Amino acid sequence: MIALVISGDRGEAEALATEIAEKQKHRIRGEITKVEIEAGYGSACIIAEEDDVIIGDKAIVSCRHITPEDPGFPENLGEIEGYDSVIRILRGQRGFFSGIWASESKLILFRDHVGHMPLAYRWLRPEAFTAALERWALGGGAEQLEPGHMLLFDGRRSEVVRWYEPGIGQVNDPVGLLANSLIEVMDIYIPKRCSLAFSGGLDSSIIAHLASRSGKDVDALVIGYGDCLDRVWAREAAELLGIEVREIIVDDELLREAISMLKGYLFKKSPMDLAIASIFYIASKNSLGDFLIAGQGPDELFGGYRKYLTALERFGIGHAAELMRRDVEQLHVTNLERDELASALAGSTLIAPYLAKPIYELALSINPSMKLRKNGGEIIRKWVLRRAAEKLGLPGKIVERPKKAAQYSSGIMKRIKFILSSSGVSGR
Asked: Looking at the structure, do residues 289 and 373 belong to the same domain, yes or no?
């Protein structure tokens, strides 16, 4: 679904949906279809790519999704009716999706467990609202639908309800289970041909190693200025892993082009957000095929950030675990909206396989002390992920490689600050 408008006036619904869809034309790759419904909750106009629309016996469904494990999704949604049945279908999915389910009497907006696939909405009046993939396209007052939630509307009342609760259990062999889960997820969620944002760090190296091992045609891309740390590490890691790496050398002209495009769309325009978004935008511009694979998620799920280490040292593991939990819950706001949009603006679909439900729920089940692990006088961040990588056969030099923030190790953050200051334009 690119755009949805519900209104008491059919003309308003069609005009607004057309306007919202036009703002997101960079997402359109195939034929577009317009579906209009006269329902108990008003006139509905849905604009979407033809392949994203299912007209079923019970409902009309429009859904963007990455759900390779279930070829029948979302077609199955068109054959059911009622909130409970929709929830049952959604709970069976392990991948990423967002969309709408519309019958003659009810409308449901839904979004995946982590918010990987975008979906936003804005109320125009108590009985009328708009929805779209991109929040900015709806104007002021728009908000994201929370991950794992549904918005229910029948014309008389609306309600946002949670359909997803993480399946958290006891884990007896976290290293072994994580290694097996990584093998399974990477095999399923990495397409046969795609590009990978590759820095030579732990997270992207695990993806590259497992993709290569399973015979995927993965184009490893490293983005950076001059002989930045990312390019040095990527070359070294590629040699250790026995893969090829393609280096995209950034200069100020290329970065200015990225900034100019991104500032018109991003909600958060700080130098850090622009730097990270620029990496995704440039990588996507240079990607082969329709997909860009990224190692988003492990820092929040497995304790990669320095702030967790600081929290552990000052206040104990409970405080560090709480910080990680909050960061995971806010991934859709802090990272995913920005990174997915930057990739879409450049013509790619972002896939973050670490956030697929099997790894996501396993990570939430692993004891935080296995993520931030004391080893003598040192605290090892992402300890359990490093041990899983070791079990998978990654070279020790990569397994123990420290965390480096991409905006700095690529050299892009420094140049963005210079470009913004020299142009007299604020980054906020």
From this structure: yes
